[in-house]
User: Which sequence fits this backbone?
């Protein structure tokens, strides 16, 4: 990695200039079932899925750096056509949530990803209809609400539906309220753009049963990058349905959307600095093509400057180290 032209104190001053602290960071972690096979890592520099035991250790390190929020993505050992393991109370996410709450209690805020792409054989974020071609929105949101309920029952503080299904927030909120989980918050991925920048995530979260994850097409339910008006409608619908915070991803290429949404709605907003953004900077840094630390800082600062209240980022360790230097 190219040596940074900035001293540690200068980088910290830059972060402080946009009022960014460790409280604004959410650490994404991939938790794998101990029975799962080794997963592909080549597209995701310096990042891997963790066993439950290693996740507890990693979260302890994270909290020592001042970061107290984590979002969990499950990597199960079982995939089937309907993603049945996603709502299993003995599933990897549910077990991990229970263990982390036992270890860290209320000091740790646990957000869980609520989706089907890691659990079904298609890699799609929803359930297929009877034809096997299109996604069945209504069946999917009913199942997402069941997944969210099991996460809440395990002890999650926040559930984060990321399937981009119409009505997912309302359906989840209704079931959580009916089953005694009124205090559980919902942070939906209100805008998830159809993007090639998710490939490193898929290389880590998807099993060997889904080889061609790079060319997977989810454009029927994810948002086209050309249409900002559709993005605004998606945000508005989720707020009306009961979202507590909205999430936009990717981040770096959509700072104009983050800024416009924050200005229009003045609503709590998180930006996800996605795996492709992380991988590009890390890979270029490893080849000495860029000043890696300077790029990380400028990228994170731009998200905070645009209006993000929280930043979900794989750079959490880099940023926390600078803030604690």
Assistant:
């Amino acid at each position: 990695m190219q040596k940074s032209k900035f001293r540690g104190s200068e980088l910290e001053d830059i972060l402080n200039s946009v009022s960014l602290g460790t409280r604004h960071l959410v650490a994404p972690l991939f938790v794998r079932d101990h029975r799962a096979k080794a997963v592909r890592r080549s597209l995701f520099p310096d990042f891997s899925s963790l066993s439950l035991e290693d996740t507890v250790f990693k979260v302890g390190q994270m909290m020592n750096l001042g970061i107290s929020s984590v979002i969990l993505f499950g990597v199960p050992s079982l995939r089937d056509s309907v993603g049945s393991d996603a709502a299993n109370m003995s599933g990897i996410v549910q077990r991990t949530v229970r263990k982390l709450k036992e270890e860290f209690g209320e000091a740790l805020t646990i957000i869980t990803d609520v989706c089907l792409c890691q659990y079904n054989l298609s890699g799609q974020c929803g359930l297929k209809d009877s034809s096997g071609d299109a996604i069945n929105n209504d069946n999917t949101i009913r199942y997402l609400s069941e997944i969210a309920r099991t996460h809440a029952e395990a002890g999650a503080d926040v559930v984060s539906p990321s399937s981009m299904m119409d009505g997912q927030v309302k359906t989840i909120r209704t079931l959580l309220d009916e089953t005694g989980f009124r205090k559980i918050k919902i942070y939906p991925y209100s805008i998830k753009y159809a993007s090639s920048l998710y490939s490193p995530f898929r290389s880590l979260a998807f099993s060997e049963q889904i080889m061609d994850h790079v060319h997977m097409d989810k454009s029927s339910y994810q948002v086209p990058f050309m249409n900002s008006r559709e993005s605004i409608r998606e945000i508005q619908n989720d707020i009306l349905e009961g979202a507590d915070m909205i999430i936009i991803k990717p981040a770096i290429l959509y700072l104009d959307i983050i800024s416009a949404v924050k200005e229009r709605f003045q609503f709590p907003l998180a930006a996800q600095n996605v795996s492709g953004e992380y991988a590009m900077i890390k890979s270029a840094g490893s080849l000495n093509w860029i000043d890696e630390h300077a790029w990380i800082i400028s990228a994170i600062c731009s998200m905070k400057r645009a209006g993000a209240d929280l930043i979900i980022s794989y750079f959490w360790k880099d940023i926390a180290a600078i803030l604690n230097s």
Remarks:
- The two ends are 19 Å apart (CA to CA).
